[in-house]
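Protocol step 4 of 6: structure prediction from sequence.
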Amino acid sequence: MTSPIGNQRAQQAFLAAMHGGSLHHAWLFAGPQGVGKGSFARMAAMRMLAEAAGELPSSPDLVVPEGTRTRSLIEAGSHPDYRVLARLPKDPDKPDQDLARSIPIAQVRALQPLFATTPSLSPRRVVIIDAIDDLERAAANALLKNLEEPPAGTIFLLVSHAPGRLLPTIRSRCRILRFEPLPPHLLADELARRMPDAPHEEIAAIVTGAKGSLGRALDFAGLDIAGMDKALQTIATTGDPTNAERSALAKSLALKAQQQRYEAFLDRAPAFIAEAATTRAGEALRTALDAHEAARALAASARGLSLDQRASVYEMAGLVARLA
């Protein structure tokens, strides 16, 4: 376990509050998805509980060493003062498959017996909700009652990718800590560390497509994003007058074995068009913006309506061809 990369200002602000006697009872970690908010919440929770239990002295380092009782209990899923609320698998027997669309009120209500007691191993308890954006409306209202009258010793760490969509009453009861997209050099360094055999051009393509999100970058790993970008660039430059390029791309991404790469394509193609728009003006800019809007709508429909993959890739590539 290593310290989260990037967003040092946010990390330092939280640590200063944690060690300065001004630790608010509810924190909203807000920022783009995949920039380390959830990882930071889990590490901060582990550190808070370990220090509260007297196992570690105050430190600017979030890492809790192996062998520490708090770390062992959390990793075993048995720490009595630590809870994480997240979307659960639709089928409990298949934890690696589809997750539920939301966090229901039952999960929030399940916290109430915990709140009726004092923390067990120290004066502190930590509840993480990752992400609070996933709460059903009734669940959000149930949580609000706990934020308005926080149980003794309880710290809430709420992860949000879209804080503007939350109930204003929830936001008003939290101290907001903003996380920013990671800079390209940090993403590149981290990918090079995790993917030592990856070609430089592949890492560069992943960094471009990830838009500051380490989570998205790791999702792209091993999917030949550089090759995908090369195909998109050819279509955008030539217009693909014979439809040969888009046909080949559609055929390759429609294979069952290419599902992850197809998902990455639905993310990458609209972003590719958006990047092209930044270099244009006048009618060319309007064409690119229209193509980008259509590409985003197509990507959403392709996922939400489970459209035919081959047809979706072919149509998306046609939008890219408008850039020529």
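Step 5 (inspection) to follow. The first strand starts at residue 26 and ends at 30.
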